[in-house]
Every structure is written in structure tokens, then in C-alpha cells.
Design brief:
single chain, 5-stranded mixed sheet, 30% helix, globular
């Protein structure tokens, strides 16, 4: 395979590692107004804003990936019978765009790798090889640029440098999707007919691009099902405002399972850095082509 020259995405001060352009002037994106969405997502966003994980190579704050890991923890606790799911990948070559599910656990979407690896082979001992982390945590824009559809087999253990870069972008990974029926499980749960909304979260000066807007509206199926949450709104909300969101959210049919998780002491004391670092760290070795030690980086599948 051809060697890939990795191009990191453009950085936005105070934002994520995503590229940023002005929104499409032909139509405005509706803001998030649902009180349950605001209460649930702002809880995660405020924590990430106050405690950003900064990746090692360029100090970029990875706010959204930290939020996504916290939402993923909620999904795992309820075996993916959960109204929100973060970073669901969609195959944009299909009409409508189709969610990319785990091959080994088809009840849930694939979890995209956090890190990028480079394989190192030994001339003296060709049967042995090892890997080193090139980037400790990748932004979603970088994953979209680097992962082709269908997914390559080596992608389950990280993104290798010998994966060929795809010129078009057949993969899109919105920040959060909210589903209508969170009890059905499997691909149907994350497919367009069951999407209550697609939510993009923007931190700091990160802005929505025209390309993102078009892709997420395509995934949602209707423009009013795509919503934008600028997280400065979360930062401006005082305790009274957050209490009002929580009170209004109690009329939601999905409130009960969310309230159960939010009441857990582990949710209040969760350290998102632990979630992030625990998934991308210790040393990983290959014996032949087999990864002996990998913690939850065996996706996408």
C-alpha cells in the first residue's frame, strides 16, 4: 500500500481540531431548543470546557471527543438502549446515509479509533513488529479524511500510515444523534426514519462549514432535524436556567433512564481525562500482525 502523509486538520483557537468556514448564508441552522438536549449535552460540554484534554503533539484541546466518550459511557451502561449516541459514522455513498455498525456487536455503532499508529518492522527479526502512537487522539475531521468506506480491516486497531487517503469524503461522523425509539437496537435504531435529530456541538470559535451543514441535513433527512449547539450557551446558563431545563425535561418520555444515569455518583465525579487516556495509552505490541495489548481500540469493525 502507498504510504500516507498525514495532514492534521486546521486548528481553531479555543475550539476543536476541525476545519472552520462560514455557515451557508442561504439558510440558517436552527439552534438546540429542546430542554432535555440542553440539560444533557451542556452537562458534558461544561465539564469538557473546564477540563480540556490537550493532545500531546500540538496541544490542541479535544473537547468534543471527550464529550463523546462520556456519552459512550452512558450508552454502554444501558447496552445502547439510550436516546443519545455520539460519533455515529454514516456511509454517505448510500441513500439515505446509512449508519456504520460494529461487525462483532451489531446492536451498536462502530466506535472509531482515538489514535493513529505507525507500524515498525525489524529487518533483523521480520516476524516481529511493533507500533508507535503517531497522534494520541484524532479529531473527527481527521478520521473522516483518513478512513475510507467500506472500512479497511486494519482500521480496527488504529489508523495505519499505509492506508490510502480518500479524495472524496464518503464518511461523515456527526457529533451527536438523538433517536426516537431507543429500545429497538441495531442499525434501525440509528437509521434516518428513527432520528429525532442530528446535533453538532461547537466549542469556542469553531464554526459550522457549508459542507458539514449539507452532510448533516442529508443524514437527518430534514433541515429542521439538524440542530446546532454553540457551547457558549451552556457556559452562560446559570444554575436557575439549568434547573429550568431539567424541570421541563421531565415531560420527555426518555427522561427516566437519563435521570437514572445522571444520579449516579460516578457521573458526577467522572474524570473525562481518565476516559480518554485509558483508551489511547499504554504501549501496544504486535506479534506478527496480532495486537497483544489493546484496550477498547478494536474498532471500527
Amino acid at each position: 500500500m502507498a504510504t500516507q502523509n498525514v495532514r492534521p486538520g486546521p486548528k481553531n483557537p479555543g475550539g476543536s481540531s476541525r476545519g472552520s468556514t462560514k455557515p451557508d448564508a442561504s439558510g440558517q441552522v436552527l439552534p438546540v431548543t429542546n430542554p432535555l438536549d440542553l440539560w444533557y449535552l451542556c452537562e458534558k460540554a461544561r465539564y469538557a470546557s473546564a477540563n480540556p484534554y490537550r493532545r500531546a503533539n500540538d496541544e490542541a484541546p479535544m473537547y468534543q471527543r471527550t464529550v463523546a466518550l462520556m456519552i459512550r459511557a452512558d450508552n454502554e451502561l444501558f447496552e445502547y438502549r439510550w436516546p443519545y449516541c455520539a460519533e455515529v459514522g454514516y456511509d454517505m455513498t448510500k441513500t439515505p446515509p446509512a449508519p456504520i455498525m460494529s461487525k462483532k456487536q451489531p446492536h451498536r455503532p462502530s466506535s472509531f479509533p482515538l489514535s493513529q499508529y505507525k507500524r515498525i518492522s525489524s529487518r533483523q527479526f521480520p516476524q516481529y513488529s511493533s507500533v508507535e502512537v503517531v497522534v494520541d487522539i484524532l479529531g473527527l475531521d481527521e478520521l473522516e479524511e483518513m478512513i475510507p468506506v467500506p472500512l479497511p480491516p486494519d482500521a480496527e486497531n488504529g489508523i495505519w500510515q499505509d492506508i490510502q487517503v480518500v479524495q472524496q469524503r464518503p464518511l461523515r461522523i456527526p457529533d451527536v444523534v438523538r433517536v426516537i425509539d431507543h429500545t429497538m437496537g441495531g442499525e434501525r435504531q440509528y437509521s434516518q426514519p428513527n432520528l429525532a435529530g442530528v446535533i453538532e456541538m461547537k466549542f469556542g470559535r469553531d464554526a459550522l462549514s457549508t459542507e458539514q451543514k449539507a452532510a448533516y441535513e442529508d443524514i437527518a433527512g430534514k433541515s429542521d432535524r439538524f440542530r446546532l449547539l454553540n457551547t457558549d450557551r451552556c457556559d452562560r446558563a446559570d444554575r436557575r436556567q439549568r434547573r429550568e431545563w431539567m424541570t421541563a425535561a421531565q415531560s420527555e418520555p426518555v427522561y427516566k433512564p437519563v435521570s437514572q444515569v445522571m444520579s449516579l455518583p460516578s457521573r458526577a465525579s467522572a474524570n473525562p481525562h481518565g476516559l480518554v487516556v485509558g483508551l489511547i495509552m499504554p504501549s501496544i505490541a504486535l506479534h506478527g500482525r496480532f495486537l497483544k495489548s489493546v484496550r477498547r481500540l478494536r474498532e471500527p469493525q
